[in-house]
């Protein structure tokens, strides 16, 4: 799962690197447009991705025939929400101008956003099938499919962005189009594994293509809080990002580059989060809670060790890391100076990310999604209100805004750890309700 999620990070990283060859404005626009797209689909993606925990729980309880039925319900949901997604997307695209972005930046952000939105069904379907294979512990399938997708995306985006091999130069639209095509390619690879004869017979795949009321209700009951949590977290983060970009193009470019390096830590930890969700879900389904402590210990050992090393790297090489994205022929010194200071904050909160993602993976696998939703919503909304005050009311500088963001992540990590090391989420009565259809 770490390799799989890192492949996705590499795809985004190279797209932004290609954008940097055009100009700082394109880097900032790709970040704004990309995050806004994620926010637009976040609610539905959060619900659909709960397939990992559901499938793992059915696998642990020995109900193998119900595992592929989860995929069917997820794809039905992905198809059903398409009209709503377009309506939401049309309104979301207005945010760029409302946040005070320059007209040139707004035009680029909208181009990137709408191309990604056109491929939203593919993105949601990929989330569903990848979550299924994670849930049945076939994570090698996820790795192969995602890595092959990236191997298609990187050269394809290069060709489309810069107009090579006789194709027109599409710029930022080419980057988005390359992502959509690569996503479709990954879905096709997943389908080959899904309809493989051995897998098809073991899980009764061909008998799964129907609406299942019990699984659908359980999917929504446990997955909707998870989806709301993802949506509110992504939405408030996106508004913070757009507010921060109102400082100017240099500040927006600095943030985009810092978050690009942040993916080296955050995205592999997402892989750990998915793996932990799957393992905890399986033990919950099997009624074997004694193994959960071993999962928690192993996950923290791996995640914290990785984040400590990466945090040191971010501090020691911060200026060199910023200069990787320097646009040829342009003065990049202002962006490097600001971004280098922000990299210190990044090195500070990487451990908080590790704690948040491991703790949330455990709690999500155990079905404690309502608590995660309430806590995450409260703290993210609080963070956004603080950012509005800092940026728009008090008119403080970008570093004041940045350190307030870092402080919020540290606070969130402390609260998640307190819940994890308590006992309420593992009580037998609550777990019995989680497994009920």
Automatic annotation (TrEMBL):
It is a multi-pass membrane protein. CDD domains: MATE_like_7. The chain crosses the membrane at residues 71-92, 112-134, 141-163, 175-198, 219-244, 264-284, 296-317, 332-359, 371-390, 402-421. GO terms for molecular function: antiporter activity; xenobiotic transmembrane transporter activity. Its main location: membrane. Keywords: Antiport, Cell membrane, Ion transport, Membrane, Transmembrane, Transmembrane helix, Transport. One of its GO terms (biological process) is monoatomic ion transport. It is found in: Cell inner membrane. GO terms for cellular component: plasma membrane. Pfam families: MatE. NCBIfam families: matE. PANTHER family: FMN_FAD EXPORTER YEEO-RELATED (PTHR43298:SF2), MULTIDRUG RESISTANCE PROTEIN NORM-RELATED (PTHR43298). This is Multidrug-efflux transporter.
